[in-house]
Amino acid sequence: MLNEKIIQTQSLTELQELYTSVFGKNGTMTARLKQMKELDNDARAELNRENTELRELFKNRQAELETAALNAALAGEKLDVSLNAEPENRGTIHPLTKSAQEVIDIFESMGYTFMTGPEIEDDWHNFTALNTPSYHPARDMQDTFFLPNGNVMRTQTSAVQIRAMETHGVPIKMFTVGQCYRKELDATHSAMFGQIEGLHIDTVEKGINLSDLLATMRTFATRFFEQDNIELRIRPSYFPFTEPSIEVDMRFGDKWMELLCGGMVHPTVLKNCNIDPNKYQGFAFGFGWARLAMVKYGLNDIRAFTDSDVRWLKSTGF
Ligand code: DAH
Fold first, then answer.
1. Over the stretch 73-117, which tens digit does the pLDDT of each residue have?
2. Alpha helices per DSSP H over the chain
3. In sequence order, what are the residues at sequence separation of 6 or more whose Cβ sits closer than 8 angstroms to the Cβ of residue 29?
4. Are 16 and 101 part of one and the same domain?
5. Do 135 and 237 have their domain in common?
6. 119 and 12, same structural domain?
7. CB under 6 Å to ligand 1: residues?
8. For residue 241, is it within any domain?
9. What is the number of the ligand 1 atom nearest to the C-alpha of 161?
10. 219-233, 262-276, 300-314: which range is least confident on average?
């Protein structure tokens, strides 16, 4: 009997073949349905019933066979969770990435806008506009990588200050985090190193001054190092682009650690960006990015940051 044949099919292909032999172009049922007109009412009703029943049977058997096929496939793919697997060697968030994110969060919450600039810089943005023309002795403070076309690998993120003032004018309150390059390499210097740089300029009526810089640094350090009673001290310093220039140290136990450099932006720098120093004034500051991370997380070799040694990375505990 056809009904039984359908139920006994063992595969979807077999079922499909049977279906074609019944309902296909030359199928047995197709032929009978073509003759329908010649039947009396009862026979017609009987044929209709049979037709519906057969289609139903095919459909059900198809569903059964599909489920069976799926189950078989799943059984074949079963994972043996008791097998010993190779441990997965996952990386972790790099301490520089983590500290940069923390720095960005803090400065953004203080109203500073994050901006960036290119790592290959021209002489103007990296030196000349920063009051360091080619004859200036302060150029020797930084061992520069020069490119054949006269551009440089930027030696300082201070270049981004110039780009920010040229593009956005003043008042401005911006900061950046980025890589810089110098020909230096020992346990405390690497040829590529990160800096964090900030700039806040407003009208002389607002009168932004050095104590604003210190207050900003106090707020930053309190939040970054998660310490309430931080102690800062300032030392006079020299940078061509700030006057006066200072270095700020922070106390850790009985040691003072250099935290950042900064000062009031030099009038010549403002003039170089078409800003009138009689109308605008403000401060700038720069941090060593790795130094911040080293101090906060107790790391001691700056070169490890760029060695890509996953064991070291794991030992940092991130
Ligand atoms: N650009 C300086 C350096 O690389 C750091 C610096 C000093 C940045 C004073 C500043 C600043 O913005 O005001 O040594």
1. 888 887 777 878 787 777 788 889 999 999 999 999 999 999 999
2. 2-8, 12-23, 28-34, 41-76, 95-109, 123-126, 158-168, 210-224, 267-272, 289-297, 310-315
3. 22, 23, 50, 51, 54
4. no
5. yes
6. no
7. 156, 158, 197, 239, 242, 261-263, 284-286
8. yes
9. 12
10. 300-314
Mean pLDDT of 274-290: 97
Q: Which domain holds residue 214?
A: 95-316
Q: In the chain, what is the straight-line distance between the N-terminal and C-terminal CA atoms, in Å?
A: 71
What is the mean predicted confidence (pLDDT) over 127-149? 88
User: Residues of the chain with pLDDT > 70: what percent?
Assistant: 98
Q: What angle do CA 96, 99, 103 make, to 5 degrees?
A: 130
| Three-point CA angle 253, 221, 98, nearest 5° | 105
Q: Which atom of ligand 1 is nearest to the CA of 130?
A: 1
CB contact burial 171-190 (16+ within 10 A = b; e otherwise): ebbbbbbbebbbeeeeeeeb
118/165 same-domain check: yes
- Atom 6 in ligand 1: which residue has the minimum CA distance? 286
What CATH number does the domain containing 153 carry? 3.30.930.10
Tell me the whole-structure pTM to 2 decimals: 0.72
Q: Which atom of ligand 1 is nearest to the CA of 286?
A: 8
Domains identified in the chain, total number:
2
**Rounded to whole angstroms, what are the CA distances from 255 to 183, 236, 249, 286?**
29, 19, 10, 21
Best residue for ligand 1 mutational test, from 127, 153, 156, 181 (most atoms within 8 Å of Cβ): 156
Is residue 19 a part of any domain in this protein?
A: yes
Same-domain check for residues 22 and 166: no
| Residue 162 sits in the same domain as residue 26 | no
Three-class DSSP labels, 18-33: HHHHHHCCCCHHHHHH
